[in-house]
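Running this now, will post back.
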Amino acid sequence: MASCSKSTFGFIECPLCKIRISHPMLYGELDAIAALYRAVESRAYTRLEIENLLKHKAISEPSGQFFQNPAGYARGHFAFLHVLQV
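Update: finished.
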């Protein structure tokens, strides 16, 4: 049976201000996480293209919650799961 969990990346943000943590002493530790984050964002953007959601009003209209932020919309709209074989 496969085990999976939703990737949210909240753990790489400061718990107080929600800005992504970055420090020279952590660069080596954060490289794999940053690569995974970029891969998820790339897949999310591709999924938006496939489903014709890049022109969704939440992204394209100035009053939209994710105006000019398709990656933010995709993170809330899709669930990307990291599946491990057990």
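The chain is about 40% helix and 10% strand. More later if anyone needs it.
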